[in-house]
Amino acid sequence: MIAWQHFTFDDLPVSPWRNGGGETREIFSFPAGGHDFDWRASIATIAQDGPFSAFPGIDRSITLLSGEGVHLEAQPDVDHLLVVAGEPFAFSGDTALHARLMGGVTTDFNIMTRRTECAARVIAAREHLTVTREKGGVIYVISGMWQLADGPLLRAGEGYYWSETAAQSQQGSVSLTPVAQQQRCLLLWAAIS
């Protein structure tokens, strides 16, 4: 796990949205420092109704972390209620969506991949999970505590990310196990292939 980078929600850099409707905390963008990413992971806070920017050539996945949820629309293609924490929703970034809050502010986990370079698969887990290296990825604890096989304990709001370079330097997989009551433990894994 040497090449994995630990992060916490509170330590992620915050960027307000241009439309004033929320903010983004970037976890990682690959290649690092590049404006044109192959893949990007972030956590967004949606504070008011409004548009999602279109990202041509990008596939997106959004997963509710907290809040009452959001209604995502782009008629006639998309009409989705994102109201259950931990259930990912994938859509094309070619489509400009409109988001309507179902209640108050929401916090959401986001993965974007350039479809000519890679793809993402977002998996929610409440039980033991084995994470493979692939081209890169992110794990993020939504709730509860998770034990990594080699010792570190992860709490809600913590995670790890790794890039293709890190994936190549480490072989095999990593196991995570929920600590205590499994029904209260929820973890996301975004696998980049």
Instruction: Identify low-pLDDT runs.
Output: none
Rounded Rg = 16 Å
Helical amount among residues, as a percent range?
under 10%
Approximately what portion of the residues adopt beta-strand conformation?
A: over 45%
Q: How many strand segments?
A: 19
- Strand arrangement in the largest pleated sheet: 2-3-4-11-6-9
Q: Helix and strand succession? A: EEEEEEEEEEEEEEEEEHEE
Q: Count every helix, treating DSSP H or I runs of 4 or more residues as helices.
A: 1
End-to-end CA span: 19 Å
Largest sheet: 6 strands, antiparallel
Alpha-beta content class: mainly beta
Mean pLDDT: 88
- Identify the overall geometry: globular
Structural overview:
- This protein is mainly beta.
- 3% of the residues lie in helices and 55% in strands.
- It has 1 helix and 19 strands.
- It has a 6-stranded antiparallel β-sheet with strand order 2-3-4-11-6-9, with no helix packed on it.
- A hairpin with an 8-residue loop joins strand 3 and strand 4.
- The longest helix has 6 residues.
- The protein is globular.
- The two termini are 19 Å apart.
- The mean pLDDT is 88.
Secondary structure topology:
Elements (H helix, E strand, L loop, with lengths): L4 E4 L5 E3 L5 E9 L8 E8 L3 E2 L6 E9 L3 E5 L3 E5 L5 E5 L5 E4 L4 E9 L5 E6 L3 E4 L3 E8 L1 E4 L4 E3 L2 E5 L1 H6 L3 E7 L6 E7 L1
Antiparallel strand pairs: 1-17, 2-3, 3-4, 4-11, 5-10, 6-9, 6-11, 7-8, 7-10, 12-19, 13-18, 14-17, 14-19, 15-16, 15-18
